[in-house]
Amino acid sequence: MVHCRVCCLATDQSALLALKARITSDTFNPLANNWSTTTPVCNWIGVTCSARHRRVAALDLSNMGLTGTVPPHIGNLSFLVWLNISYNDFRGELPMELGRLRRLKGIDVMYNKIDGQIPSGLDSLSKLQHLRLGRNNFTGQIPQEIGNLQNLKSLNMESNQLTGPIPPAIFNISSLQRIALSLNGLSGDLPVDMCNRLPKLELLLLSGNELHGRIPSGLDKCSQLQWLSLSYNKFRGPIPSVVGNLTMLKQLALGGNILEVLKLLECGTSIIYKDDINYVAPPINRKP
């Protein structure tokens, strides 16, 4: 058993050294000396090992001033639960080998310059709860398979170059609390029943796309919504009166569309209109 642990940890070490080899600029020098064979892997900066298996369980390289690419060897970190390389200057594509990390619960690569398509195989990550790919240069469409991630709580793909429709299966992930897809080139309309299976959704950000059609009339089924942004799309028609039933709502942004403004004072929710329809006041306490 001891030999197995040493051997497997060596596999983790090799995977991380392959990542280090892909780092072309290390602004603050966090890895240069620390990530070496003379230092135990579990003592490396940004690395956390599990107490039970003594394998690499978390890799947090966020905000370390790193420039480079992510190698396919990352898929050999078979005990990895959390991967965070956000706020760096990683480039190139994410390797499809990420789909081999079946224990992963969180992926955060936000605020880099990663490009190419979102890798296939992410639907194999059945335990994934957080998928944060925003503020990069991803292209192509959102994979339909994302809808298979039935434990997902937050999905952030904002500010990329994604096109095509939002896969309807995403609106079937009942565990979702946050969806942020703003500032892409997404098109198509939103399903009328999109909120029927999103009882926990608190944030829905879809502004700055090419979405069209009518704003779904069943939005009130997302009863926990606190932030709703549909601004700067191509929505037409009336604002559904049921928006007034969203009593948890703190912010509403609908500007930059072609909408008919209706009175939405219902169920104690007061919506104050500006030119761009972007502010929701606190609920009014009505006297009986």
TrEMBL record:
<dbReference type="GO" id="GO:0006952">
    <property type="term" value="P:defense response"/>
</dbReference>
<dbReference type="InterPro" id="IPR003591">
    <property type="entry name" value="Leu-rich_rpt_typical-subtyp"/>
</dbReference>
<dbReference type="InterPro" id="IPR013210">
    <property type="entry name" value="LRR_N_plant-typ"/>
</dbReference>
<keyword id="KW-0675">Receptor</keyword>
<feature type="domain" description="Leucine-rich repeat-containing N-terminal plant-type">
    <location>
        <begin position="10"/>
        <end position="50"/>
    </location>
</feature>
<keyword id="KW-0472">Membrane</keyword>
<protein>
    <recommendedName>
        <fullName>Leucine-rich repeat protein kinase family protein</fullName>
    </recommendedName>
</protein>
<dbReference type="InterPro" id="IPR001611">
    <property type="entry name" value="Leu-rich_rpt"/>
</dbReference>
<keyword id="KW-1133">Transmembrane helix</keyword>
<keyword id="KW-0812">Transmembrane</keyword>
<dbReference type="InterPro" id="IPR053211">
    <property type="entry name" value="DNA_repair-toleration"/>
</dbReference>
<keyword id="KW-0325">Glycoprotein</keyword>
<dbReference type="Pfam" id="PF00560">
    <property type="entry name" value="LRR_1"/>
</dbReference>
<keyword id="KW-0433">Leucine-rich repeat</keyword>
<keyword id="KW-0067">ATP-binding</keyword>
<keyword id="KW-0732">Signal</keyword>
<dbReference type="GO" id="GO:0005524">
    <property type="term" value="F:ATP binding"/>
</dbReference>
<dbReference type="InterPro" id="IPR032675">
    <property type="entry name" value="LRR_dom_sf"/>
</dbReference>
<keyword id="KW-0547">Nucleotide-binding</keyword>
<dbReference type="Pfam" id="PF08263">
    <property type="entry name" value="LRRNT_2"/>
</dbReference>
<feature type="domain" description="Disease resistance R13L4/SHOC-2-like LRR">
    <location>
        <begin position="60"/>
        <end position="159"/>
    </location>
</feature>
<dbReference type="GO" id="GO:0051707">
    <property type="term" value="P:response to other organism"/>
</dbReference>
<keyword id="KW-0677">Repeat</keyword>
<dbReference type="InterPro" id="IPR055414">
    <property type="entry name" value="LRR_R13L4/SHOC2-like"/>
</dbReference>
<dbReference type="GO" id="GO:0016020">
    <property type="term" value="C:membrane"/>
</dbReference>
<dbReference type="Pfam" id="PF23598">
    <property type="entry name" value="LRR_14"/>
</dbReference>
